[in-house]
Give the backbone structure.
Amino acid sequence: MKQPIYLDNNATTPLDPRVLEAMLPYFTEKFGNAASRNHAFGWVAEEGVDYAREQVAKLIGCTEKEVIFTSGATEADNLAIKGVFEMYKDKGNHIITAVTEHKAVLDTCKHLEKNGARVTYLGVKEDGLIDLAELEAAMTPETILVSIMYGNNEIGVIQPVKEISAIAHKHGALFMTDATQAVGKIPVDVNADGIDLMAFSAHKMYGPKGVGALYVRRKNPRVKVTSQMDGGGHERGMRSGTLNVPGIVGLGKACELCRLEMESEAIRLSGLRDKLESTLNKMEESYVNGNTQHRLPHVANISFKYVEGEGLMMAMSDLAVSSGSACTSASLEPSYVLKSLGLSDDLAHSSIRYGLGRFTTEEEIDQAIAVTEKAVNHLRELSPLWEMFKEGIDLSKIEWAEH
Amino acid sequence: MAYSEKVIDHYNNPRNVGTLNKDSKFVGTGLVGAPECGDVMRLQIEVGEDNVITDAKFKTFGCGSAIASSSLATEWLKGKTIDEALSIDNMDIVEELALPPVKIHCSVLAEDAIKSAINDYRVKNGLEAIVLEKSHH
């Protein structure tokens, strides 16, 4: 079977062969437990972990002691939010986040609401960015944490993290960010950005799955989180569990490659993305979702009106993309991120996310354009809504039989 | 999710796509679903002598299973009498296309579209609309 063109790099990225090469010895001859202090096997593994910690720290501008390895960004989000809530409960119980966050943040907050937390879910503007005045107004003396993602996974918009952290700090709260989509793609510096806690993951930046990290600030202020996993007291007592040495080595190598190649790669990717987006946006009734100034270089989210996203993906079987339509889910609810931008359900159902990556070529983008245009035109020929639109019928005036 | 071969076949080669003259008294039109729900089907039948359906056309906004369900429905409708058409059950469509549980609503919509088209035809020709049982959602 011919492999489709992979344009779903916001879901996961392929492993860079250079990362794999760095990892391989740690599966075999360097198999030691990094916590074994009494023999060479342990020391070699520990060296690998220490080196990876340096590579990670260098990418985000922190010190090695501030990097806590986890099983991925979801665990890091849980550790940060639950850990802060438990550690700072004497100070307050209020957390502020946004409706467009990843489920790992939203569901963690919902869980804490059952345990006495008060959570404010900020809405977003039409372009996907939060309103800073609204954030400021939501701050209270009980606010202990503001958790706003760096770059959005569906539409790629980048939140004004510097401004957000300044507001959080002004009111004595900590600032946490889920930077899973941003780290390794754009410059992220925890000091310049005023970040106190930051979650990210290896498999979104050409590293392996099952490993990620939480940055926890140690100075100005010294941030503490209660551990969510009890055991041997690994990772400065914040995350027990034998370290996933090959995974961590892979995360380190992935961070190093991103740091060295990010600048040129971001230019290359935004060039390809802009070509894809501007060409497809020339199609009739197509709409680009989210802010187009403040966003990640490798994401485009486009709605093709009068065509349903899942049906469209089926017609584009030569492309691996994703859709905000959720015809398969039991709820049939389209993307909550797109809906929170104020998009109508039918436009949300008509959306396709293209996520470009390190291995995306210009030839692939040209093919993706051709495949999309053909599929959209084909499905519009089948679409009663398109026919009605062409006849000038106002679809909003029709009484649809909801089912 | 993987689609069955029959869904893929109907999706790639949809039968009877098109539009009949909705103002003709021989044509019944059913428009069901809603854009907000991610699927809308329009199914039309043309009825000849002896209540036999001589032509059927569809257009569908929706996922592959919705398109396949309506394509299959038009195929089945041609040559049937109105009474025979009324007996098409959504579960027949589920079975024929091997639809998974999350796609059963697509077949329900196709059954609704058939009945709605028949009722449109009946009302146009001075007959009472048939009271439809609520199909099993």
Q: What stands out?
A: The CA atoms of residues 41 and 60 of chain B lie 4 Å apart. The radius of gyration of chain B is 14 Å.
